[in-house]
Write a structure and sequence with these properties.
Distance between the termini of chain B: 19 Å
Largest sheet of chain B: 6 strands, mixed
Strand order of the largest sheet of chain A: 4-5-10-7-9-8
Number of strands of chain B: 10
Shape of chain B: globular
Helix content of chain A: 55-70%
Number of helices of chain B: 7
Oligomer: heterodimer
Strand order of the largest sheet of chain B: 6-7-8-3-9-10
Shape of chain A: elongated
Structural class of chain A: alpha+beta
Order of helices and strands of chain A: HHEEEHEEHEHEHEEEHEHEHHHHH
Structural class of chain B: alpha/beta
Number of helices of chain A: 13
Chain lengths: ~400, ~240
């Protein structure tokens, strides 16, 4: 058998001779590999963004909701009937060793009026601990304080999106007065930008006011139950399961639930949400990749088709080569390497195409691209494998030609 | 002179269904090194079958074929390819050059399969082209060459591996008479330089160039005569 270098040279020459055909043949592989790379990159990007977003919410967080986690109709009923009292909240804060901080959030969507604009945004009443739990500092100004909380001071901390919409760009929001339900609040701080959360909502479109001010100005009086969600931060990420267990134990005791009663509250951790969301992403990516892989196989069939045509067209050439001493393996390798080169070039171009496509498309839809080297190598290996697999049959066919017949072929 | 080719009871039988057809039966033939042999006969006489067997493109049904002392009758496809590469140069009626490939690359082809390194390949292919008087046409593709020139390239390809045997199947069949005599002159020169040349022809004036003339009929040699070639040795 002649050397691989020699065979490669032969293949290169044969492919250059039919440039257009070679290109069109590789197009199938290019599209297949490109699609795999593109989908994988987008999927990987989405996954890491979800992870980053969830982590931006704070890593040690356990969310506590009123209502059963497991109702008769399945999961649901978060906060549908408030069951957690302010007393419960205080107990969690003071009695549980694994809990670092607790902050309730009571939300209300309200029109907010500044001197120049009106903007409908989310008003949240909470305590200063909330910003510690969420790991969310101010970009400018200050947070409201424990004494603001104690006096129900009408101070507000504003998110960047809400600030831009209320005051317009370039205006310093600090010291501005806004009116919420006719009550004037003074902006004391602007929060750092957080971006979208895992569900895609803009976390910066918000205004925070002291819980006490929320209760006096907006809810009119103190109910027995906490009408919102409760964020609990564990002392460490490892303490999260312990926090959930302690909270469960404490609340079951306080709510006097019998051993057969279900919880009338539920907890969830960010880690749980992360794995839930990323596993959805994984399934989607896998599904789409499978479709892309099918197109790669179709591309491979295209390669086989063209190689079969090529073998027939070049029957006489095969005869000549055999007459001057080419062995069957030489002929087989020549066609196999041609198919392999076609597929490998297609694979390489496909990687470029997939990454390029992502660079163009991803920003338009606000997607993130993350191309793993691993995927690139797997795609290249698969396309080369496709070349060998689909090149084998035509190559064997060529090598089995009878030299006498082949020389006579017109 | 030592025998280059020895055929003993060589036969080629084709089977179709129950009937057998002997394209060649029991040919006994010895061809010495350096001989210049014409094989003639009407179509269907077995000329082509004999050439295919001599050229190791096909295997006989029976009998033995000693080429340079080695029995090649029952070799595998792989071994036959090696024998063709090492011992035989082919010249065909329709030239059989690779299209869109330069004369030089066409001549290099057998050397590729002989695993000669590229640099040496170029030198030897160029030498062979010069020997057939086409050194100045090395970069031309077959479509840029005349029929006679194409056949010269084919002859250069046949002799580039310095094989002991050149087999030419109707080498002048597609050429006019002036070009034909040039090609025959070239083959005569090669024979004078020591190569053994066998050619098939059905034209008596082409057969006249040979030193020995075989006539085939119905798959058997019916006449085997020595003759005075029309181009005598230079000496």
């Amino acid at each position: 058998m002649i050397s691989i270098g020699e065979t490669l040279r032969l293949a290169g020459r044969a492919l250059r001779r039919n440039k257009m055909r070679s290109f069109l043949t590789t197009l199938g592989i290019i599209i297949g590999v490109g699609a795999v790379i593109f989908i994988q990159s987008i999927g990987e990007g989405a996954k890491s963004r979800v992870r980053a977003q969830i982590e931006s919410a704070g890593t040690n967080i356990v969310m506590l909701f009123s209502g059963a986690s497991q109702g008769p109709g399945g999961r649901g009923g978060w906060g549908s009937q408030p069951t957690i009292t302010w007393e419960d909240l205080r107990a969690i804060q003071t009695e549980l060793p694994s809990v670092r901080a607790v902050a309730p959030q009571i939300n209300s969507q309200q029109p907010v009026i500044s001197e120049t604009n009106t903007w409908n945004t989310q008003i949240t009443g909470t305590t200063p601990d909330y910003f510690i739990i969420r790991n969310w500092p101010v970009a400018d100004g200050a947070l409201f304080t424990a004494s603001d909380q104690a006096t129900a001071a009408k101070n507000a901390v504003i998110g960047q999106t809400a600030a831009e919409n209320l005051f317009g760009p370039g205006v310093d929001p600090i010291g501005q007065i806004i009116r919420i339900r006719d009550a004037p609040f003074t902006i004391v701080g602007v929060l750092e930008r957080k971006g979208q959360n895992a569900m895609g909502t803009d976390q910066d479109d918000c205004i925070f006011i002291p819980l006490s001010a929320f209760q006096t100005r907006m809810q009119r009086g103190l109910g027995k139950f906490v009408p919102g969600r409760i964020s609990i931060s564990a002392v460490s990420p490892e303490a999260i399961p312990r926090v959930r267990q302690e909270v469960q134990q404490l609340l079951r005791e306080r709510h006097r639930l019998g051993p057969d009663d279900e919880d009338d509250f539920s907890t969830s951790s960010m880690a749980e949400m992360t794995s839930m969301l990323t596993s959805t992403q994984d399934t989607m990516t896998l599904l789409l990749s499978a479709i892309a892989l099918v197109s790669l196989v179709v591309g491979g069939i295209g390669v086989m088709n063209i190689m079969l045509v090529s073998v027939t067209e070049r029957t006489r050439e095969i005869g000549i080569r055999m007459a001057v001493g080419a062995q069957p393996t030489d002929i087989m390798m020549q066609f196999l390497v041609e198919a392999l080169v076609l597929s490998a070039i297609g694979g390489a171009l496909g990687v470029i195409f997939g990454v390029g496509l992502g660079q163009v498309i991803a920003p338009k839809f606000g997607w993130t691209m993350e191309t793993k080297t691993q995927i690139v190598f797997i795609s290249l290996a698969v396309s080369a494998g496709v070349g060998i697999l689909f090149g084998l049959y035509p190559a064997r066919k060529a090598s089995k030609l009878d030299p006498i017949e082949a020389l006579r072929y017109e | 002179m030592a025998a280059l080719i020895q055929l003993r009871n060589l036969a080629k039988i084709y089977q179709s269904g129950d009937s057998e057809f002997a394209a060649l039966h029991d040919v006994n033939l010895t061809i010495d090194r350096g001989d210049f042999v014409a094989i003639t006969g009407s179509s269907g006489s077995g000329k082509s079958t004999l050439m295919n067997l001599l050229g190791c493109l096909d295997s006989p049904s029976r009998g033995s074929y000693l080429l340079a002392g080695r029995d090649v009758a029952q070799l595998s496809r792989v071994e036959l390819a090696k024998v063709r590469n090492e011992f035989i140069g082919f010249v065909f009626q329709n030239f059989n050059l690779l299209s869109r490939t330069t004369a030089l690359e066409n001549v290099e082809l057998p050397l590729i399969y002989a695993k000669v390194p590229p640099a040496e390949r170029h030198v030897r292919a160029r030498e062979a082209l010069e020997r057939v008087g086409l050194g100045h046409r090395a970069g031309h593709t077959p479509s840029q060459l005349s029929g006679g020139q194409q056949q010269r390239v084919a002859i250069a390809r046949a002799l580039v591996t310095r094989p002991p045997l050149i087999l030419a199947d109707e080498p002048t069949g597609n050429l006019d008479s002036a070009t034909s005599s040039e090609i025959m002159k070239l083959l005569t020169e090669l024979q004078h330089s020591g190569m053994t040349i066998l050619f098939v022809t059905h034209e008596p004036d082409i057969a006249a160039y040979a030193a020995r003339k075989l006539v085939l009929k119905d798959g058997a040699v019916i006449s085997d005569e020595r003759q005075q070639p029309i181009l005598a040795a230079a000496s």
